[in-house]
Amino acid sequence: MNDESRISEKFEALRGVMDEQMRRLWAATEALALGYGGVSVVARAIGMTRPTITAGIKELSDASHLASMALKHRVRREGAGRPRLTNADTGLCPALQELVESTTRGDPMSPLRWTYKSVRTMAAELNRQGHPVSHQAVSEVLQSLGYSLQVNRKTREGAGHPDRNAQFEYIAQRAKQFQRRGQPVISVDTKKKELVGDFKNAGQEWHPKGQPVVRVHDFQDKDLGKAIPYGVYDLSANAGWVSVGIDHDTPEFDVESIYCWWRQMGRKTYPQARELLITADGGGSNGSRVRLWKVALQRLADVTGLKIAVCHFPPGTSKWNKIEHRMFCHITRNWRGRPLESHEVIVNLIASTTTTKGLRVRAALDTDAYPTGVKVEDATMATLHLIPDKFHGDWNYTIAPEHPDQINKKPRRLRTKL
Protein backbone atom coordinates (compact mmCIF):
# COMPACT_ATOMS: atom_id res chain seq x y z
CA MET A 1 0.00 0.00 0.00
CA ASN A 2 1.49 3.37 -1.01
CA ASP A 3 1.51 6.52 1.12
CA GLU A 4 -1.51 8.11 -0.54
CA SER A 5 -3.72 5.03 -0.04
CA ARG A 6 -2.61 4.64 3.58
CA ILE A 7 -3.27 8.30 4.40
CA SER A 8 -6.63 8.24 2.61
CA GLU A 9 -7.72 5.15 4.57
CA LYS A 10 -6.80 6.72 7.92
CA PHE A 11 -8.53 9.98 7.03
CA GLU A 12 -11.78 8.23 6.15
CA ALA A 13 -11.68 6.39 9.47
CA LEU A 14 -11.23 9.63 11.46
CA ARG A 15 -13.22 12.09 9.34
CA GLY A 16 -16.43 11.76 11.36
CA VAL A 17 -14.85 12.64 14.73
CA MET A 18 -12.60 15.52 13.66
CA ASP A 19 -13.64 19.14 13.37
CA GLU A 20 -12.12 21.61 10.93
CA GLN A 21 -9.12 22.40 13.11
CA MET A 22 -8.31 18.76 13.88
CA ARG A 23 -8.45 17.81 10.19
CA ARG A 24 -6.06 20.65 9.39
CA LEU A 25 -3.58 19.69 12.15
CA TRP A 26 -3.78 15.96 11.41
CA ALA A 27 -3.03 16.59 7.74
CA ALA A 28 -0.09 18.80 8.77
CA THR A 29 1.43 16.08 10.98
CA GLU A 30 1.13 13.51 8.17
CA ALA A 31 2.79 15.90 5.72
CA LEU A 32 5.65 16.60 8.15
CA ALA A 33 6.13 12.86 8.73
CA LEU A 34 6.54 12.26 4.99
CA GLY A 35 9.15 14.97 4.62
CA TYR A 36 9.85 16.69 1.31
CA GLY A 37 6.81 16.52 -0.97
CA GLY A 38 4.57 15.42 1.90
CA VAL A 39 2.18 18.38 1.49
CA SER A 40 1.39 17.39 -2.09
CA VAL A 41 0.93 13.70 -1.18
CA VAL A 42 -1.52 14.49 1.65
CA ALA A 43 -3.40 17.01 -0.51
CA ARG A 44 -3.97 14.38 -3.22
CA ALA A 45 -4.89 11.69 -0.71
CA ILE A 46 -7.62 13.52 1.23
CA GLY A 47 -8.65 16.33 -1.14
CA MET A 48 -7.48 19.15 1.11
CA THR A 49 -5.87 22.21 -0.44
CA ARG A 50 -2.17 22.82 -0.07
CA PRO A 51 -2.65 26.30 1.56
CA THR A 52 -4.83 24.69 4.26
CA ILE A 53 -2.18 22.05 5.03
CA THR A 54 0.52 24.74 5.06
CA ALA A 55 -1.55 26.78 7.50
CA GLY A 56 -1.79 23.70 9.74
CA ILE A 57 1.99 23.32 9.69
CA LYS A 58 2.40 26.95 10.79
CA GLU A 59 -0.06 26.41 13.63
CA LEU A 60 1.87 23.33 14.80
CA SER A 61 5.06 25.36 14.98
CA ASP A 62 3.44 27.99 17.21
CA ALA A 63 2.69 26.29 20.55
CA SER A 64 1.41 29.49 22.18
CA HIS A 65 -1.09 30.00 19.37
CA LEU A 66 -2.43 26.45 19.77
CA ALA A 67 -2.76 26.89 23.52
CA SER A 68 -4.64 30.16 23.04
CA MET A 69 -7.10 28.61 20.59
CA ALA A 70 -7.67 25.63 22.89
CA LEU A 71 -8.34 27.94 25.81
CA LYS A 72 -10.91 29.93 23.84
CA HIS A 73 -12.40 26.77 22.24
CA ARG A 74 -11.88 28.21 18.78
CA VAL A 75 -11.45 26.31 15.52
CA ARG A 76 -10.12 29.28 13.54
CA ARG A 77 -8.07 32.25 14.65
CA GLU A 78 -9.94 35.47 15.30
CA GLY A 79 -10.90 37.27 12.10
CA ALA A 80 -10.33 34.19 9.93
CA GLY A 81 -12.85 33.08 7.35
CA ARG A 82 -14.77 34.98 4.72
CA PRO A 83 -16.90 37.87 6.09
CA ARG A 84 -20.68 37.55 5.81
CA LEU A 85 -22.16 39.08 2.68
CA THR A 86 -24.86 40.79 4.73
CA ASN A 87 -22.17 42.61 6.73
CA ALA A 88 -20.24 43.73 3.70
CA ASP A 89 -23.40 44.70 1.77
CA THR A 90 -25.98 46.10 4.22
CA GLY A 91 -28.49 46.65 1.41
CA LEU A 92 -28.58 42.98 0.39
CA CYS A 93 -31.20 41.79 2.91
CA PRO A 94 -33.66 44.67 2.25
CA ALA A 95 -33.27 44.22 -1.51
CA LEU A 96 -33.88 40.48 -1.28
CA GLN A 97 -36.90 40.92 1.00
CA GLU A 98 -38.39 43.49 -1.34
CA LEU A 99 -37.80 41.13 -4.25
CA VAL A 100 -39.70 38.22 -2.67
CA GLU A 101 -42.34 40.20 -0.71
CA SER A 102 -45.00 40.10 -3.41
CA THR A 103 -44.22 36.49 -4.38
CA THR A 104 -44.23 34.91 -0.94
CA ARG A 105 -46.45 31.88 -0.66
CA GLY A 106 -47.24 29.34 2.04
CA ASP A 107 -49.01 30.13 5.33
CA PRO A 108 -48.05 33.67 6.41
CA MET A 109 -49.10 32.85 9.98
CA SER A 110 -46.19 30.39 10.14
CA PRO A 111 -42.57 31.47 10.72
CA LEU A 112 -41.60 29.37 7.68
CA ARG A 113 -42.33 30.82 4.26
CA TRP A 114 -41.39 29.99 0.72
CA THR A 115 -41.22 31.73 -2.62
CA TYR A 116 -41.80 30.40 -6.11
CA LYS A 117 -38.91 32.38 -7.60
CA SER A 118 -35.74 30.32 -8.05
CA VAL A 119 -32.57 31.41 -6.23
CA ARG A 120 -30.77 31.72 -9.58
CA THR A 121 -33.43 34.13 -10.85
CA MET A 122 -33.20 36.19 -7.67
CA ALA A 123 -29.39 36.17 -7.78
CA ALA A 124 -29.47 37.49 -11.35
CA GLU A 125 -31.88 40.27 -10.36
CA LEU A 126 -29.79 41.23 -7.31
CA ASN A 127 -26.64 41.37 -9.45
CA ARG A 128 -28.50 43.64 -11.87
CA GLN A 129 -29.37 45.92 -8.93
CA GLY A 130 -25.72 46.17 -7.88
CA HIS A 131 -25.55 43.45 -5.22
CA PRO A 132 -22.96 40.89 -6.39
CA VAL A 133 -24.11 37.56 -4.97
CA SER A 134 -24.26 33.91 -6.01
CA HIS A 135 -27.35 31.72 -6.04
CA GLN A 136 -25.92 29.70 -3.13
CA ALA A 137 -25.51 32.87 -1.05
CA VAL A 138 -29.12 33.85 -1.85
CA SER A 139 -30.24 30.46 -0.55
CA GLU A 140 -28.34 30.97 2.71
CA VAL A 141 -29.72 34.48 3.23
CA LEU A 142 -33.29 33.27 2.55
CA GLN A 143 -32.88 30.57 5.19
CA SER A 144 -31.68 33.15 7.71
CA LEU A 145 -34.80 35.23 6.92
CA GLY A 146 -37.13 32.33 7.74
CA TYR A 147 -37.74 30.90 4.26
CA SER A 148 -37.55 27.18 3.58
CA LEU A 149 -37.45 25.01 0.48
CA GLN A 150 -40.72 23.08 0.33
CA VAL A 151 -42.76 21.07 -2.08
CA ASN A 152 -45.92 22.64 -3.49
CA ARG A 153 -48.41 20.96 -1.19
CA LYS A 154 -51.64 22.42 0.19
CA THR A 155 -51.59 25.54 -1.97
CA ARG A 156 -54.93 25.12 -3.73
CA GLU A 157 -56.50 27.93 -1.70
CA GLY A 158 -57.19 30.70 -4.21
CA ALA A 159 -54.73 29.24 -6.72
CA GLY A 160 -57.34 28.63 -9.40
CA HIS A 161 -57.64 32.23 -10.63
CA PRO A 162 -55.20 33.05 -13.45
CA ASP A 163 -54.60 36.61 -12.14
CA ARG A 164 -53.99 35.60 -8.52
CA ASN A 165 -50.27 36.41 -8.42
CA ALA A 166 -50.67 39.43 -10.68
CA GLN A 167 -53.14 40.86 -8.15
CA PHE A 168 -50.67 40.30 -5.31
CA GLU A 169 -48.04 42.24 -7.23
CA TYR A 170 -50.54 44.98 -8.09
CA ILE A 171 -51.48 45.43 -4.42
CA ALA A 172 -47.80 45.59 -3.42
CA GLN A 173 -47.13 48.19 -6.13
CA ARG A 174 -50.11 50.34 -5.10
CA ALA A 175 -49.12 50.22 -1.44
CA LYS A 176 -45.59 51.41 -2.25
CA GLN A 177 -46.93 54.26 -4.36
CA PHE A 178 -49.15 55.51 -1.53
CA GLN A 179 -46.42 55.18 1.07
CA ARG A 180 -43.94 57.09 -1.09
CA ARG A 181 -46.45 59.95 -1.23
CA GLY A 182 -46.97 59.82 2.54
CA GLN A 183 -50.57 58.66 2.21
CA PRO A 184 -52.08 56.06 4.61
CA VAL A 185 -52.34 52.39 3.66
CA ILE A 186 -54.53 50.19 5.85
CA SER A 187 -55.39 46.51 5.93
CA VAL A 188 -58.88 45.66 7.20
CA ASP A 189 -60.70 42.49 8.19
CA THR A 190 -63.05 40.95 10.73
CA LYS A 191 -61.42 38.76 13.36
CA LYS A 192 -63.13 35.53 14.38
CA LYS A 193 -66.31 36.14 16.36
CA GLU A 194 -65.86 35.30 20.05
CA LEU A 195 -68.36 34.08 22.65
CA VAL A 196 -68.50 36.39 25.65
CA GLY A 197 -68.45 34.67 29.03
CA ASP A 198 -66.50 32.06 30.96
CA PHE A 199 -65.91 29.89 27.90
CA LYS A 200 -62.78 27.99 26.97
CA ASN A 201 -60.20 30.05 25.13
CA ALA A 202 -57.39 28.19 23.35
CA GLY A 203 -53.94 28.41 24.89
CA GLN A 204 -52.44 28.07 28.35
CA GLU A 205 -52.12 30.39 31.35
CA TRP A 206 -50.79 29.83 34.87
CA HIS A 207 -53.60 29.00 37.31
CA PRO A 208 -53.92 27.25 40.68
CA LYS A 209 -53.92 23.50 40.16
CA GLY A 210 -57.37 21.88 40.12
CA GLN A 211 -59.32 25.10 39.72
CA PRO A 212 -60.97 25.16 36.27
CA VAL A 213 -62.40 28.55 35.36
CA VAL A 214 -64.56 27.81 32.32
CA ARG A 215 -67.86 26.08 31.70
CA VAL A 216 -68.14 22.73 29.96
CA HIS A 217 -70.46 23.59 27.05
CA ASP A 218 -69.95 26.42 24.57
CA PHE A 219 -73.55 27.61 24.29
CA GLN A 220 -73.89 31.34 23.69
CA ASP A 221 -74.88 33.32 26.77
CA LYS A 222 -78.12 35.16 25.92
CA ASP A 223 -77.25 38.11 28.14
CA LEU A 224 -73.60 38.54 27.13
CA GLY A 225 -73.90 37.47 23.48
CA LYS A 226 -70.86 37.58 21.25
CA ALA A 227 -68.07 39.96 20.27
CA ILE A 228 -67.27 40.92 16.68
CA PRO A 229 -63.78 42.49 16.43
CA TYR A 230 -63.23 44.43 13.21
CA GLY A 231 -59.63 45.55 12.79
CA VAL A 232 -57.83 48.30 10.91
CA TYR A 233 -54.04 47.97 10.61
CA ASP A 234 -51.85 50.87 9.48
CA LEU A 235 -48.98 49.33 7.51
CA SER A 236 -46.67 52.35 7.71
CA ALA A 237 -47.21 53.27 11.38
CA ASN A 238 -47.39 49.66 12.66
CA ALA A 239 -50.51 50.60 14.60
CA GLY A 240 -54.04 49.34 14.63
CA TRP A 241 -57.60 49.98 15.71
CA VAL A 242 -60.23 47.38 16.65
CA SER A 243 -63.94 48.10 16.99
CA VAL A 244 -65.66 45.41 19.05
CA GLY A 245 -69.24 45.09 17.83
CA ILE A 246 -72.10 43.29 19.58
CA ASP A 247 -74.72 43.08 16.80
CA HIS A 248 -73.87 41.95 13.25
CA ASP A 249 -70.84 42.08 10.97
CA THR A 250 -72.19 44.24 8.15
CA PRO A 251 -70.57 46.61 5.64
CA GLU A 252 -71.88 49.57 7.64
CA PHE A 253 -70.16 48.25 10.78
CA ASP A 254 -66.94 47.72 8.83
CA VAL A 255 -66.85 51.23 7.40
CA GLU A 256 -67.86 52.72 10.77
CA SER A 257 -64.80 50.96 12.24
CA ILE A 258 -62.58 52.48 9.55
CA TYR A 259 -64.05 55.90 10.32
CA CYS A 260 -63.33 55.38 14.05
CA TRP A 261 -59.69 54.61 13.16
CA TRP A 262 -59.54 57.77 11.07
CA ARG A 263 -60.98 59.97 13.84
CA GLN A 264 -58.94 58.45 16.66
CA MET A 265 -55.61 57.66 14.97
CA GLY A 266 -55.35 58.20 11.22
CA ARG A 267 -56.15 61.93 11.12
CA LYS A 268 -53.43 62.66 13.71
CA THR A 269 -50.84 60.45 12.02
CA TYR A 270 -51.53 61.80 8.51
CA PRO A 271 -52.67 65.43 8.89
CA GLN A 272 -51.92 66.15 5.21
CA ALA A 273 -53.62 63.03 3.85
CA ARG A 274 -55.78 63.41 0.78
CA GLU A 275 -55.94 59.74 -0.20
CA LEU A 276 -56.44 56.40 1.55
CA LEU A 277 -55.64 52.88 0.30
CA ILE A 278 -57.62 50.00 1.79
CA THR A 279 -56.60 46.37 1.24
CA ALA A 280 -59.42 43.96 2.05
CA ASP A 281 -60.49 40.37 1.51
CA GLY A 282 -62.36 39.45 -1.64
CA GLY A 283 -65.38 38.12 0.25
CA GLY A 284 -67.34 38.65 3.44
CA SER A 285 -69.00 41.87 4.55
CA ASN A 286 -66.26 43.95 2.86
CA GLY A 287 -66.15 41.82 -0.29
CA SER A 288 -65.53 43.14 -3.78
CA ARG A 289 -69.11 42.42 -4.90
CA VAL A 290 -70.92 43.81 -1.83
CA ARG A 291 -72.90 46.89 -2.87
CA LEU A 292 -73.49 48.22 0.64
CA TRP A 293 -69.73 48.20 1.26
CA LYS A 294 -69.20 50.59 -1.65
CA VAL A 295 -72.14 52.80 -0.63
CA ALA A 296 -70.76 53.06 2.89
CA LEU A 297 -67.29 53.90 1.51
CA GLN A 298 -68.83 56.68 -0.57
CA ARG A 299 -70.31 58.14 2.62
CA LEU A 300 -66.88 57.83 4.29
CA ALA A 301 -65.24 59.64 1.38
CA ASP A 302 -67.84 62.42 1.50
CA VAL A 303 -67.43 62.92 5.27
CA THR A 304 -63.62 62.84 5.36
CA GLY A 305 -62.90 64.34 1.94
CA LEU A 306 -60.48 61.47 1.27
CA LYS A 307 -60.12 59.84 -2.10
CA ILE A 308 -60.45 56.15 -1.15
CA ALA A 309 -58.72 53.47 -3.22
CA VAL A 310 -59.60 49.83 -2.54
CA CYS A 311 -57.70 46.67 -3.51
CA HIS A 312 -59.27 43.28 -2.79
CA PHE A 313 -57.28 40.09 -2.41
CA PRO A 314 -58.24 37.27 -4.82
CA PRO A 315 -60.89 34.82 -3.62
CA GLY A 316 -59.64 32.33 -1.05
CA THR A 317 -56.47 34.22 -0.07
CA SER A 318 -57.59 36.01 3.09
CA LYS A 319 -54.52 34.92 5.08
CA TRP A 320 -52.31 37.02 2.83
CA ASN A 321 -53.94 40.19 4.16
CA LYS A 322 -51.32 41.95 6.31
CA ILE A 323 -53.63 42.44 9.29
CA GLU A 324 -53.83 38.67 9.80
CA HIS A 325 -50.17 38.12 10.60
CA ARG A 326 -49.15 41.58 11.80
CA MET A 327 -51.94 42.35 14.28
CA PHE A 328 -54.60 39.66 14.73
CA CYS A 329 -52.06 36.93 15.53
CA HIS A 330 -50.58 39.07 18.32
CA ILE A 331 -54.03 39.78 19.77
CA THR A 332 -54.77 36.05 19.83
CA ARG A 333 -51.43 35.38 21.52
CA ASN A 334 -52.06 38.11 24.09
CA TRP A 335 -55.37 36.69 25.31
CA ARG A 336 -54.58 32.98 24.94
CA GLY A 337 -55.87 30.85 27.77
CA ARG A 338 -57.98 33.67 29.24
CA PRO A 339 -61.78 33.47 29.32
CA LEU A 340 -63.31 36.48 27.56
CA GLU A 341 -65.72 37.12 30.40
CA SER A 342 -67.08 40.47 29.24
CA HIS A 343 -66.88 42.97 26.41
CA GLU A 344 -64.74 45.23 28.62
CA VAL A 345 -62.25 42.40 29.17
CA ILE A 346 -62.03 41.87 25.40
CA VAL A 347 -61.46 45.57 24.73
CA ASN A 348 -58.78 45.80 27.42
CA LEU A 349 -56.95 42.68 26.23
CA ILE A 350 -56.92 43.96 22.66
CA ALA A 351 -55.71 47.41 23.72
CA SER A 352 -52.89 45.90 25.81
CA THR A 353 -51.42 44.03 22.83
CA THR A 354 -47.83 45.01 22.06
CA THR A 355 -44.83 43.54 20.29
CA THR A 356 -41.07 44.00 20.48
CA LYS A 357 -41.25 45.80 17.11
CA GLY A 358 -43.47 48.55 18.49
CA LEU A 359 -47.00 47.50 17.52
CA ARG A 360 -49.63 49.57 19.33
CA VAL A 361 -53.34 48.82 19.25
CA ARG A 362 -56.35 50.81 20.39
CA ALA A 363 -59.84 49.40 20.80
CA ALA A 364 -63.37 50.50 21.64
CA LEU A 365 -66.77 48.90 22.09
CA ASP A 366 -69.41 49.63 19.44
CA THR A 367 -72.88 49.04 20.93
CA ASP A 368 -74.86 50.27 17.90
CA ALA A 369 -77.22 48.03 15.96
CA TYR A 370 -76.33 47.11 12.37
CA PRO A 371 -79.29 45.41 10.65
CA THR A 372 -78.71 42.78 8.02
CA GLY A 373 -80.47 42.35 4.68
CA VAL A 374 -80.14 45.98 3.56
CA LYS A 375 -80.83 46.21 -0.18
CA VAL A 376 -79.00 48.63 -2.48
CA GLU A 377 -80.83 49.54 -5.66
CA ASP A 378 -79.26 50.21 -9.05
CA ALA A 379 -80.23 53.87 -8.80
CA THR A 380 -78.17 54.23 -5.61
CA MET A 381 -75.17 52.54 -7.21
CA ALA A 382 -75.39 54.95 -10.14
CA THR A 383 -74.83 57.91 -7.79
CA LEU A 384 -71.47 56.62 -6.55
CA HIS A 385 -68.27 58.35 -7.68
CA LEU A 386 -66.65 54.97 -8.32
CA ILE A 387 -63.76 54.71 -10.79
CA PRO A 388 -62.59 51.14 -11.65
CA ASP A 389 -58.85 50.65 -12.15
CA LYS A 390 -57.58 49.52 -15.54
CA PHE A 391 -56.36 46.25 -14.03
CA HIS A 392 -59.24 44.16 -12.66
CA GLY A 393 -61.68 46.95 -11.97
CA ASP A 394 -63.87 44.49 -10.07
CA TRP A 395 -61.08 44.06 -7.48
CA ASN A 396 -59.43 47.48 -7.68
CA TYR A 397 -61.32 50.78 -7.71
CA THR A 398 -61.32 54.29 -6.32
CA ILE A 399 -64.21 56.18 -4.70
CA ALA A 400 -63.92 59.95 -4.88
CA PRO A 401 -65.64 62.35 -2.45
CA GLU A 402 -68.52 64.42 -3.71
CA HIS A 403 -66.89 67.59 -2.36
CA PRO A 404 -63.08 67.11 -2.22
CA ASP A 405 -62.56 70.47 -0.50
CA GLN A 406 -64.26 69.35 2.73
CA ILE A 407 -61.49 67.55 4.60
CA ASN A 408 -61.76 66.05 8.09
CA LYS A 409 -65.34 66.85 8.97
CA LYS A 410 -66.17 65.66 12.47
CA PRO A 411 -69.55 63.95 12.81
CA ARG A 412 -69.60 61.61 15.80
CA ARG A 413 -70.97 58.71 13.79
CA LEU A 414 -70.90 57.75 10.14
CA ARG A 415 -74.28 56.66 8.82
CA THR A 416 -75.31 55.37 5.39
CA LYS A 417 -78.76 56.57 4.31
CA LEU A 418 -80.45 54.49 1.61
| CATH C-level name of the largest domain | Alpha Beta
* Arithmetic mean pLDDT: 82
Question: What structural class should be given to the helix and strand makeup?
Answer: alpha/beta
Report the helical percentage.
40-55%
Task: State the low-pLDDT regions, or none.
Answer: 109-114
CATH architecture of the largest domain: 2-Layer Sandwich
CATH superfamily of the largest domain: Ribonuclease H-like superfamily/Ribonuclease H
- Inertia-based shape: elongated
Give the radius of gyration.
Answer: 30 Å
Distance between the termini: 97 Å
Run of helices and strands: HHHHHHHEEHHHEEEEHEHEHHEHEE
Give the domain tally. 3
Q: How is the CATH topology of the largest domain named? A: Nucleotidyltransferase, domain 5
Helical region count?
15
Please report which band the strand proportion falls in: under 5%, 5-15%, 15-25%, 25-35%, 35-45% or over 45%: 5-15%
Largest sheet: 9 strands, mixed
Structure description:
The protein is an alpha/beta fold and 418 residues long. It has three domains: 3-72, no CATH class; 85-144, no CATH class; 164-399, 2-Layer Sandwich (Nucleotidyltransferase, domain 5), CATH 3.30.420. Helices cover 40% and strands 13% of the residues. It contains 15 helices and eleven strands. The strands form two sheets. Strands 3, 4, 5, 6, 7, 8, 9, 10 and 11 form a nine-stranded mixed sheet that branches. It has a two-stranded antiparallel ribbon with strand order 1-2. β5 (226-234) and β6 (239-245) form a beta hairpin. α2 packs across α4, α8 crosses α9 and α11 (251-269) packs parallel to α12 (291-304). The longest helix has 19 residues, at 251-269. The protein is elongated, with a radius of gyration of 30 Å. It starts with a helix and ends in a 19-residue tail after the last strand.
